[in-house]
Every structure is written in structure tokens, then in C-alpha cells.
Design a protein that fits this description.
four-stranded parallel β-sheet, globular, Hypothetical Protein Tm841, Chain: A,domain 3, 279 residues, alpha/beta, Rossmann fold, six-stranded mixed β-sheet
Amino acid sequence: MPVKIVTDSVADIPAEVIDELGISVIPVVVRFGEEIYHDGIDITTDEFYEKLVNSRVMPTTSVPSLDMFVRTYAKLAEQNDEILVIMLSSKLSGIYNAAVQSADLVESKCRIEIVDSGCAVMAQGLVVIKAARAAQDGASMDDLLDLVRTNLPRSEMRAAFDTLEYLQRGGRIGKAQALLGSILKINPLVTLKDGVVEPAGRTRSRAKAIDRLYKFAQSYSYIEELAVEGADCPEDVDYLVKRLGTIFPEERIYRSRTTPVIGTHTGPGLILVAVLGDK
């Protein structure tokens, strides 16, 4: 049997790709006060963003239970001897540590390897997809580990916000703290470096911010895979996809919507580009 691939919901992989490649997804938990939802399961994305804007209670997120990991591993181990787990940056969440702890609780001889991606959203998702395709083609666990570790440094993202307010509230702002002085006056851009959020520039308008995302992708000498995702800004996503279609086949661009866990920390105005390729 091929190696099975597991990731978390923060990878934002489109549902149809998850189904096609048989990827197992661990949902992160979103809380509005006493109300608890599993990312992408108990609440739709539309319902979440409506609630985010209108609720007096700011949402929080938490790591899935160890039991959820154990049940996922155990189910896969019934028919597979090897499981590769690719998780959100351990510097952003405890989900990687939970994945490691859970593996020790599985009563099976199944080999489980767990990788800290050091990234998130579709920068993580593009590498997960590449690994899943290779697994379907019969790649061994060791080959998959080499593939993932080789390609994680080749996958990068840039994100533009309307505001850093949500990221600040969620405590995930990292070195992008430097942008807060003009939080109401700018459209900040951020990236992930060494697993934490860092500033990647600032603009004075949404249009200029989106232009910077385009130029980020354009700066690559070779693009292997490309993704655009947004929170609750479909028109901006449509525009950016069409523009990126001038440098990469539009039909091959992954379109994704940021899950509630990401939306909790970014707000509804997030738009980002993820690239797997070479500068």
C-alpha cells in the first residue's frame, strides 16, 4: 500500500485535491466563547466569517486532542504500514508536538514519521500535495522524507492584510510587530521565516498590496506550483489569479479559501500567494 499522507487544516488544501489524493486532514479547533467548532467540519467558511465580523466574542484557536490524532493514525494503520505526517510550523502552534506525542500512543507497528513544515497555509499545502502525488506513484517513505525536506525551503508565501489587528490579538504576529505603528494607515505584507511571521513590506493601498503579491510570484525564475487564497475577498482572488495567468497557466493555479483557523488570526481581508519553485 502507498504511504499515507496526513496534514492539518491550516494547510488550506482545496477539498477536491484532498479527495483526489486521499490526504487525511486533522482539523484545528476554533472557539467563540463556549462554542466549539472543528475547522472545516462543524462550521462552514461563510458562516465563520459572518460570525467573525458580527460576534462580540473574538474567536480563539486550540490544538486538536491527542485522541483525534490517535484515531486518525489507527484507522490508517489498519490498511497501511507507513504514515507521513506534515504539520504546521511548531513555532506557530502546538499541533506538531501533539502529532508527535500521539504517535507514541498508537498500538500498531505502523511506521509514523512526522515533519515540522516550518510554514503554513498553501506554502505548506503545496509540499503536502507534492508528497501525496509521489506517494500515489509508489515513492518509499525515505524517498518522501527526502522530497519533503528538499522542497520545504522552495515553498514560500506572501500575504497582504487590511489590518494586523487580528494577528496581534491572536499572538501570532512575531517580528511583524514592527508594522503595528501604522496599523490603521497601511496594507501590511507578511511572510514566514524560520517558522514565524515576519514583515515583508507595507503599501498605502489594497491595489498596491495585490501588485506586490504579483511581483513576488514574478520574481521566481521557475514556478513549479502556484496557489492563491483569500479569506473573504473573492473578487481580489479572481483578479490576482487572472493576472498571475500571464506568467503561469491559469488552469494550474490552485485556488483556496483560508480556513477559519487562519481567519481567526488574520481577519476577512487576507489574500496571499504561495509559490513552490526557484528564485
